[in-house]
Amino acid sequence: MSSEAIPKLQAYTSQDAAASREASEIERLGDILSVVHAHAITVSAPTTAIDAVTEAAAVPLRNRALEMDSALEAPRQATTLLVHDNISCRSVGHVPLQEPRVLVLHRDLCVLWKPAGWTVLASEATNAPAIEDWTARRFGDEIPIARDAGASYGLLHRLDRQTSGLLLCARSYMGYHLAHLQFASRRTRKEYVLFCHDWLPPEPMPRNFEAPLLQVSINSRIKRSIVSPRGRSARTELLVAYPLLGPEGEHLSLVEVRLHSGRMHQIRAHMSGAGHPLLADVDYGGTRLAWCPRIALHAKHLELDIGGVGPLVACSGLPEDLIHALQQTLSVSGNSRALAALWLNT
After folding, report:
1. Residue 67, domain extent
2. In the predicted model, is pLDDT for residue 82 greater than 70?
3. Distance from the CA of 88 to the CA of which of 25, 55, 127, 232 falls in 20 to 30 A?
4. Residue 60: inside a domain, yes or no?
5. Dihedral angle sign, alpha carbons of residues 153, 157, 159, 165
6. Residue of 108, 160, 281, 321 marked active site
7. Model pTM above 0.70
């Protein structure tokens, strides 16, 4: 497959002006990422083949990004260092948790803190504050992509409205295109922590939920993902899962997961499909509890490398509302006590 894909990708670098006008730039760049993604999800594809396809795809993406950054004179500092590489969002600065903030700066990327209650590229108008409005105000005068709706305002993935944690944002078109290439080739690492109902079986970890997910419409405004053989492939890796007891003796689990795909509501749908909906996730079968009033899901770790200046790595401790929720529980094993203590003191 890679022997056919690489010439196709190379052709994008030599298209003349007339050919470029035949298809929109967005379609061309989308085709490139689709080819890479198709290789990345092919189980039999060797790593060397995926590497070759990714490298070939980087050429037209990098060329296009250079054109756009140069035309707009987007800022690209020569030096890039992580401002923080291990963040506890409880203690950094004095910005209220209800407001976004910049946690990590990279030459072409940054990692934002997204509070619960904020939307990210919502498809429907809501009364909730939107991260893209905040980034436009915060960066728009200096970073053109922050005002570009066609490039998702630089935002590189979504987090659900009630999910808190780490959100990746591009500071240049170079960062935007190369980060999308990393997502397409499944070379990013995104990890989450959650509380779910009931105790997960004591099976060896890590293990995977790989049920395909189908997006369905509940009504004209509400969509859900359900486990269905007609759905798209999805993989959620359970890293650790330890039992807890709630204040009323409820059986709960503290779980850390890693995403290997990015379907809508993937973690929520997979956990619900396995019989372990997230706390307060009423749309997927969870129960809203007085001591945990929002969906108990937090994006804790984000890692990728777009080349040039080394990898970007960001980690986040729990926000105050989930710390409060964890403090209401009791650990029922030595391992769960150790994990809870780690999260309470991060």
Report:
1. 2-72
2. no
3. 127
4. yes
5. negative
6. 160
7. yes
